[in-house]
Amino acid sequence: MLRRPSGPGRAAALVLALVAALLTAGGGTAVAAPAPGARVVSAVPHGPSEIRLRVFSPAMGTTLPVTLLLPRGWAHGGTFPTLYALGGMDEVDDRAWTRLTDLPAFAAAHDALVVLPPTSKGGMFSDWFAPGPHWETFDTVELPALIRAEFRGGARQAVMGISVGGHAALKFAAHQPGAWAAAASFSGIPYSSAPGVSALYEKSMADAGVDPKAPWGDPVAQSGVWAAQDPANGMGNLRGTAVFVSASSGVPTPARLAGDPGQVLRDPPGALGRATGGSSIESVAFSTSVRFAQEARAAGVAVTSDFPATGIHDWPFWSAEYKKAWPMIAAALGIPA
What we know:
The protein is of the alpha/beta class. Helices cover 40% and strands 17% of the residues.
């Protein structure tokens, strides 16, 4: 890994030299000048189609991990449309998609540059109401500018996410009309400013170790902040964006209920808990996502939806759903599915 030498000018030169080598290997094009704002601190190849970055963010005031999954044809140069994949409430870094799904192999077989931003536990992908992090500025302003300037990201971009990352995908697209060709939510929970749903969000923040009043303030006293964070209040801004919304009923699949027979015999209550964990929150995602899809269509938004009869709030479900969303995402990005 690159270590920063003393002297900012020399450090910047070495970083650019490393990035240029990574991007031009195999006939690629040279990098552009650094984007203002976020900057690359280190870039380390991890296998033939993955680069692990450390990126300094002025909005966050710290250095963050970002993973790039390179598309097929990367070595031949040119720019690529970009897909940002967001994690959930309990993730702590940029690795969940690579640890828990087959997205790295999928990305290497397709034509989009996939960017995995970090997730801070309870960070809410938001510029906080209380003094604190500015996740949305990093994810939607600083990081895309850096990817376009230094990593051959094209003009077209899309975003997808699971759980609170799905909520954020819809929110990002609503906050930046026209900036995102597609937005996909897998088990996201829109209507986050509604009284019953806001209480669930507060509990989830507290369970993640975050002061529930810090990211968005108090749901009553700062109701305007909560409303602005709710993608359901920005449906009109999603016209022109391809939207995918999915969630399941919260009923575990038969395979999950069957589980490991040995575990069932040894610990029946524990086996049942593991089988049904994530059911209740998924049922909320289901009801709010169904309503969102219906109301968004009525508002003139192009919505593709998938609401399976079984499935819970977990990575096996999301790993299947992103592939269902891919044809819509690819069409919006202008690449083959």
